[in-house]
Amino acid sequence: MAECVRLDSSTSSHTMDKSITLPPDEIFRNLENAKRFAIDIGGSLTKLAYYSTVQHKVAKVRSFDHATKAASDKLYEISVQEEVTARLHFIKFENAYIETCLDFIKDHLVNTDTKVIKATGGGAHKFKELIERKLGLKVDKEDEMTCLIKGCNFVLRNIPHEAFVYAKHADSEFRFQTTQPDIFPYLLVNIGSGVSIVKVESEDKFERIGGSSIGGGTFWGLGALLTKTKRFDELLQLASKGQHTSVDMLVKDIYGGSYGSLGLTGDLIASSFGKSATADKEFSKEDMAKSLLHMISNDIGQLACLYAKLHNLSRVYFGGFFIRGHPVTMHTITYSINFFTKFILLKAMWLFHTHDHANPNQYSWGENYAGSSGLMSVSPDMNPMQRARSGTFDMLEMDRLERQLVNLPLLQDPSSYIPDTMDLTEDALAREYWLYCFEEALDGVVKRAVASQPDMPEAAQRAEKFRQKYRHKLQTLRQQPFAYGSLTVRSLLDTREHCLNEFNFPDPYSKIKQKENDMALKYYQKAVKSLEELSWEQRQFALVRGVLAGNVFDWGAKAVVLASNSGPALNDVTNGELQILTERIAAMDPVIQAGLREDRLMLVQSGSSSPCLDLSRLDKVLAMVVRERQTDLVIIEGMGRAIHTNYYAMLSCESLKMAVIKNSWLADRLGGKLFSVVFKYEVPAGKPSQHSAALSPL
Known about the structure:
Blueprint: H1 24-27, E1 34-41, E2 45-63, E3 76-94, H2 98-108, E4 116-120, H3 123-126, H4 128-135, E5 138-141, H5 144-158, E6 163-166, E7 174-176, E8 186-191, E9 195-200, E10 206-212, H6 216-227, H7 232-241, E11 249-250, H8 251-255, E12 269-271, H9 285-310, E13 315-319, H10 327-340, E14 347-351, E15 365-367, H11 384-387, E16 394-400, E17 405-406, H12 428-440, H13 442-451, H14 459-479, H15 489-502, H16 510-522, H17 524-532, H18 536-548, E18 560-564, H19 575-588, H20 590-597, E19 601-605, E20 618-619, H21 620-628, E21 633-637, H22 639-644, E22 654-660, H23 664-669, E23 677-682, E24 694-697
Parallel strand pairs: 1-4, 4-5, 8-13, 13-14, 18-19, 18-24, 21-22, 21-24
Antiparallel strand pairs: 1-2, 2-3, 3-16, 6-7, 6-14, 8-9, 9-10, 11-12, 15-16, 17-20, 22-23
Helix pairs in contact: 2-4, 6-9, 7-9, 9-10, 12-14, 13-14, 14-15, 19-20
């Protein structure tokens, strides 16, 4: 099957009413802290991007000075502080809204660092005077194709599973793909009024190698003449209901069946609109629109295949207003690609988002699920209430991460690595179960969030807003599993964390972790003494039981690197907490103290703020340490990191995955019982089992 890629974000633009169902301040979020603006105005859609700084609360831990009299008996103190991070906002809406949106921006624009707005697209000239008058900013035009390619590269590098396959008749319409570490080269087929075909070889090297005058404008123009329908989306809705066979001449209409010697089936189109010249009847608008859509899509698909073959490219991305996320356009182009790729290897994919941003490799970015509207199906047979969302506005938010993220160097094949064990987009039974679990657990999460801030009377109100937002996302996912990209247990957990942060609950489990760490520290020396009294074999079993109970451990390698979360997630230890805990242990244990002093025990951030672990997005410093120390054993512990993710991950060194299955449904799915132990030890072929350094993600 060929796979095909969309380059605009989700499409609510099919909604033809002029009401906005979300308040403007929920669309243009954090506008008062916007610093820089860019705008892309096409023939029918406007894409606005702006950079802002966001203030949010973070939980910080600080060690007490236990040498002083006033020292607390607690291991560390917890404080909630304000932190400023960078955020990118992308909003797409119909051009009909542009003046209203510019008025709202003007009224709320406070802190811009510049008096210039970057602009691209054909409408940048048309609306130049309006933009400058409304916003008081000078319009500075940028090259449209350069912006498009930079935006494509940006999302491919920063949004995992950005690409998806579209399969109309599958249980899930959208099947998300793993983006390879090396995204180049690829073919970009941009379908606007006409078609431009661009070969992209690197971040800055690209060339327009072809194109066609038959594109979206052709479909719109001829469609308007044939059906008297002036709206592009209405034409697509007509096409989705039509039968092209009443208008098109098929192979069987000429030969009475298939043409076997040429490999042509009877249902293949021999001549688009061929029947209209001879049939003495009126054709419906729907049938003519469908025939026209097939004619143009087949032409574009064949062109894409020929250029891909000519330049030996296996990846093709499609973008432009012609696609607009409509199933009917994606299906017809996918069908065309499938037909013309019978004898060549071609991988064509649709992209979830496309936006431009300068210096894309300077930082790592991550999507903020709490502020993104997602992708919704516009299938004509879907209940209109299921399609209702934010009027005709689509939003994407991306936060700049504190640390640059890279692949774990020990991945055996980074291009085939898939972190998640189950794809809930395709597994309907698993999807229904996990959505039910997360919804059932919501009351407990709300109570925990409120309890974590006993001195803040407004905490209950914020927690209720969190409940409403996260429940809405869960309900959306029941109807549209593909709405926010690849649906996994990890994405459900990450979305919950993002929503908690949205309403200033940075670490609801901080006080529980503090209490448990304080208590564990009191028993540390007793536990070590008990281990020393055991035989070697008994000690190994005791260590494993301790790990599975949640204890930090030393596996006995010459050197150990403990990688813990950079930010809070549930009750998982963070790097800040682990640093303090290890310092206190070192003060009472000369072995640990010597390990730290001699650099045989090292604590490093993983770069993650999730209960799960994506080995393709790890802290760059951690990757460097792994290379320098020639790590040859990786130990992954816990259900989120070793079961929900990385259960099937193949590494180039020995690995050990350990967890207790604390969920009866998951235990049954894996062939075990509740509280079964997973102890999965894997050795790559031809690798000796002698450890110089071990990496243990906590």
